[in-house]
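Need residues for this backbone.
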């Protein structure tokens, strides 16, 4: 990342003239610019109908942070991330609106030795503090672009939901950190008005979500240890004044751990989502394991992730979705890396758009990536 010191006139580029003129601190803001560009080429063999076997895409993420420190020691500012392919959907997510740029993460913050308060669109506290199986480069079983994977997930439910919330993150003390978040409405972000007591969209099914998480990172001699876990819970919204919700209340918990030694890292993660986002009585759980090794500019990894769906409330066959992958990354130059993965998957949970006669989506996914970080 490159740090640039800007006075109030240059801050107009980021905040507008009026906001820039309101800065009263004697010290200028420190504005940090950074990001990554990921150019992918994939080859996929699966059971989706009417689909090509190759695809290419470019994904860019640009970060900006403006921070200042008051005379009383208060540190405050703004953090955001600009990203393309916002608002895309469909059988092949990411295929439309590739040049529609949006700021998916954006929040203001203030803090000090007592921790930090954040207000805006950001990941929940438990998600930030989670520990999962190790990956390198593209991610192996953590990457499934170009196909459809049903209920399969690499991370616990609600990951990626950068809804508007307020969070408190504690300082790190002896390797320990904790955090808590409150989200008034699921799937509400930015300037959205989501005051309705009832469901207003496919993803607006819960309200008053609480997230609590904790983590530890330390070392004992030459052995590194990471631990993390958390819970999320919230209330299901009724469809209308006369139509009650058929979903279970939101309830998710997860734990994870990693141990590293001499370049090797082994770890895993388990989550239980109960019947969150599902018909009451259904159950969804997920676990993963992985191993990675890094030496010099090289890194390799293998991991496996499995999601179990129990359709206990209906006459539907239970489903197992899994993916395992291997891959590697090589740093060709500072900020430039070449990466490659192969992942194998089998998806039993309901998937639309399958070839005639197929009841599940089996496949193999090859991904080749060139990545620039700055």
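Answer:
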């Amino acid at each position: 990342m490159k740090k640039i010191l800007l006075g109030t006139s240059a801050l107009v580029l980021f905040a507008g003239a009026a906001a820039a003129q309101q800065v009263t601190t004697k010290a200028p803001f420190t504005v940090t610019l950074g990001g990554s560009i990921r150019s992918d080429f994939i080859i996929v063999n699966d059971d989706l109908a009417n689909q090509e076997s190759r695809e290419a895409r470019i994904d860019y993420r640009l970060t900006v942070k403006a921070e200042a420190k008051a005379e009383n020691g208060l540190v405050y500012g703004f953090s955001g991330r600009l990203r393309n392919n916002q608002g895309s959907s469909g059988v092949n997510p990411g295929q439309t609106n590739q040049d529609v740029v949006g700021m998916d993460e954006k929040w203001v913050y203030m803090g000090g030795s007592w921790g930090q308060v954040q207000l805006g669109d950001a990941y929940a506290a438990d998600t930030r503090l989670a520990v999962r199986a190790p990956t390198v480069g593209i991610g192996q079983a953590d990457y499934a672009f170009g196909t459809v994977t049903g209920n399969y997930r690499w991370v616990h439910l609600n990951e990626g939901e950068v809804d508007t919330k307020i969070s408190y993150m504690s300082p790190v003390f002896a390797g320990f950190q904790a955090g808590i978040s409150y989200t008034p409405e699921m799937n509400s972000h930015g300037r959205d008005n989501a005051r309705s007591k009832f469901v207003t969209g496919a993803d607006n099914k819960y309200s008053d979500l609480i997230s609590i998480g904790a983590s530890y990172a330390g070392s004992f001699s030459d052995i590194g240890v990471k631990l993390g876990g958390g819970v999320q819970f919230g209330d299901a919204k009724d469809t209308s004044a006369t139509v009650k919700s058929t979903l279970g209340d939101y309830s998710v918990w997860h734990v994870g751990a990693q141990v590293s030694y001499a370049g090797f890292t082994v770890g895993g993660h388990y989550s239980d989502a109960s019947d969150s986002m599902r018909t009451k009585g259904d159950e969804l759980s997920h676990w993963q394991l992985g191993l990675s090794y890094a030496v010099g500019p090289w890194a390799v990894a293998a991991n496996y992730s499995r999601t179990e769906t129990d359709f206990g409330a209906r006459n539907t066959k239970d489903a197992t979705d899994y993916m395992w992958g291997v891959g590697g990354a090589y740093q060709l130059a500072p900020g430039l890396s070449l990466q490659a993965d192969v992942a194998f998957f089998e998806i039993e949970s309901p998937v639309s758009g399958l070839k005639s006669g197929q009841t599940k989506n089996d496949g193999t996914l090859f991904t080749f990536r060139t990545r620039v970080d700055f």
